[in-house]
From TrEMBL:
<protein>
    <recommendedName>
        <fullName>HTH tetR-type domain-containing protein</fullName>
    </recommendedName>
</protein>
<dbReference type="InterPro" id="IPR050624">
    <property type="entry name" value="HTH-type_Tx_Regulator"/>
</dbReference>
<dbReference type="Pfam" id="PF00440">
    <property type="entry name" value="TetR_N"/>
</dbReference>
<feature type="DNA-binding region" description="H-T-H motif">
    <location>
        <begin position="41"/>
        <end position="60"/>
    </location>
</feature>
<feature type="domain" description="HTH tetR-type">
    <location>
        <begin position="18"/>
        <end position="78"/>
    </location>
</feature>
<dbReference type="InterPro" id="IPR009057">
    <property type="entry name" value="Homeodomain-like_sf"/>
</dbReference>
<dbReference type="InterPro" id="IPR001647">
    <property type="entry name" value="HTH_TetR"/>
</dbReference>
<keyword id="KW-0238">DNA-binding</keyword>
Amino acid sequence: MSEATDDRGEQRVDARVERTRRALQQAALELARAGRFDEATVAEITDAAGVNRSSYYQHYDDRDTLLADAIEAAEIEAVAGLDVPTAIPTQLPTSMVAFLAHFDADADLYRRLLGERGSPIVTARIRGRFQAQARAGVISSGTTAFEGLPIDIVAAGIAGSCLAVVQAWLELEPRPSVETAAEWVWRVLVGPGEPL
């Protein structure tokens, strides 16, 4: 069995299962960075991962979910060890700069994934992570600026705006610095007035 429960009754993933998933995700990410993921066969993905085809099908029903998991893992790794605020801070957090540096390092990949012909699953997952952060920040800030609006609507609006800024920044030539983009996202996040 690939999953078991710990002393608290929570599921934990077998180390072998996690290694296989990570290998598949890393292979998908490398193929996507090279612009070859869309055309890659399952055999090419599993060869690059060093696993067999049956392992692929044990873990993934489709390629888009594999790529979305790979992107999510890379984003989590990009901010690992950083202090990611749960509330809206009073100034631009360093974690936002580090997060956008990750987008900058893989700008070609993110332009493809977030573009018109990109991956709806990857885009939805990124928007979802933005939305969760926005929701937590608005709740913990105690602001009354959005009184009367459902929190999920507020968070969706903030997340959509921030993602749109990131997408527009990635398309610019020449692309402004990560610090400039972080400032843009920050300004959209806190609005035209004083920080929340």
